[in-house]
């Protein structure tokens, strides 16, 4: 039996048939927009289910009592990060087996997360239907065969309500990808738009899309596949996005500190950094591996309710950017200690 409420489906498997559990686990296909979240049993952490969601999304919390990811112990921060990554990676269907083990509080958290992301949520309830909490027992339909359950898992799910990026503007389609991720060339010292005179104050500074109409972005610095993978596994979207920018630009914290939502083009292929007084605000091509990370940072920024003109990375710049510094210390291969302002204490 399946109980359906909008995009939430509860499949009641009272006999705990191995088939349903196996099918739910096999439905984990992140590349196709479907993930399976396995709740960690007997975990008393208030943010435990959000951590399980992040793990299913391919993110790995830094271990240890002094972990730089300690701020994700906060329930709100952890679920916000999970929602941002869900949207950024295009997840459309989430399956949670053994949902009968979840507390009412965690079920409420899961439903609130679904409201933020707009995805299809399928819960496998392996207990008698009379034990269903009222919030999950609103509507009913019967699944008479295993084939119907498999068909339910094969559905792509709804298109997420909040897209991370609007469509790319036609003028950017051919230019933004030039050299992205394939060159180690350094950014020219003077990358201001051609319409600006040397030293001219650019305030208010235009966004990346408008600037890219006048100036070609500098190619991204190459990064080894294993280093890009290490950045992709970082749990917090703002930290992953910030460190990826530092890695492919070798810029310092100063320019990143002022980066706004509108400094990332709609297709995520170009980012604009800022110098003091906006005298030099270079454009950089964003390599393909970094675009989902910037998408996560932008989704986090928007879900938190910030306007496009606010700094995207401001929350990780507080306290002398100690969260960024701590992660730099954990990723020595990236060699992010050279730019000013990123030195590990």
SSE layout and pairings?
Elements: E1 2-5, E2 8-12, H1 18-26, E3 34-36, H2 48-56, H3 75-88, E4 93-96, H4 104-117, E5 120-125, H5 146-154, H6 170-173, H7 208-212, H8 225-232, H9 237-249, H10 253-257, E6 270-272, E7 283-285, H11 291-303, H12 318-330
Parallel strand pairs: 2-5, 3-4, 4-5
Antiparallel strand pairs: 1-2, 6-7
What does this protein look like?
With 345 residues, the protein is an alpha/beta fold. The protein contains twelve helices and seven strands. It has helices at residues 18-26, 48-56, 75-88, 104-117, 146-154, 170-173, 208-212, 225-232, 237-249, 253-257, 291-303, 318-330, and strands at residues 2-5, 8-12, 34-36, 93-96, 120-125, 270-272, 283-285. It has a five-stranded mixed sheet with strand order 1-2-5-4-3, with helices on one face. It has a two-stranded antiparallel ribbon with strand order 6-7. A hairpin with a 2-residue loop joins strand 1 and strand 2 (8-12). The N and C termini lie far apart (57 Å). 41% of the residues are buried.
Give the DSSP E fraction (strand runs of 2 or more residues). 5-15%
Strand count, sense and closure of the main sheet?
5 strands, mixed
- Which residues sit in consecutive blocks of at least 5 with pLDDT less than 50? 161-203, 339-345
Q: What is the helix fraction of residues, given as a range?
A: 25-40%
Mean pLDDT: 77
The tally of helices reads 12
What's the short version?
This protein has twelve helices and seven strands.
């Amino acid at each position: 039996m399946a109980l359906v409420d909008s995009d939430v489906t509860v499949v009641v498997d009272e006999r705990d048939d191995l088939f349903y559990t196996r099918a739910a686990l096999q439905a984990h296909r992140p590349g196709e927009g479907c993930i399976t979240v396995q709740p960690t049993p007997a975990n008393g952490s208030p943010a435990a289910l959000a951590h399980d969601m992040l793990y299913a999304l391919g993110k790995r919390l830094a271990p240890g009592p002094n972990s730089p990811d300690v701020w994700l112990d906060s329930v709100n921060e952890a679920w916000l990060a999970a929602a941002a990554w869900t949207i950024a990676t295009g997840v459309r269907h989430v399956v949670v087996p053994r949902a009968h083990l979840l507390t009412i509080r965690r079920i409420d958290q899961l439903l609130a997360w679904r409201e933020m992301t707009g995805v299809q949520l399928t819960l496998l309830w392996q207990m008698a239907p009379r034990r269903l909490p009222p919030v999950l027992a609103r509507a009913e339909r019967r699944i008479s065969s295993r084939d119907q359950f498999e068909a339910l898992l094969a559905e792509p799910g709804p298109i997420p309500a909040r897209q991370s990026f609007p469509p790319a503007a036609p003028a950017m389609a051919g230019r933004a990808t030039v050299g992205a991720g394939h060159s180690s060339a350094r950014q020219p010292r003077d990358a201001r738009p051609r319409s600006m005179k040397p030293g001219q104050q650019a305030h208010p500074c235009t966004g990346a899309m408008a600037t890219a109409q006048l100036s070609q972005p500098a190619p991204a610095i190459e990064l080894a596949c294993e280093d890009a993978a290490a950045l992709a596994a970082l749990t917090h979207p703002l930290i992953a996005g910030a460190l990826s920018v530092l890695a492919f630009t070798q810029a310092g914290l100063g320019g990143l500190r002022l980066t706004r939502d509108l400094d990332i083009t709609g297709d995520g292929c170009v980012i604009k950094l800022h110098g003091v007084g906006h005298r030099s605000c270079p454009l950089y091509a964003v390599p393909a591996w970094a675009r989902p990370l910037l998408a996560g940072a932008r989704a986090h920024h928007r879900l938190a309710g910030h306007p496009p003109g606010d700094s995207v990375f401001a929350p990780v710049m507080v306290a002398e950017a100690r969260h960024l510094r701590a992660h730099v210390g954990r990723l020595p291969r990236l060699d992010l200690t050279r730019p000013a302002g990123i030195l590990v204490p």
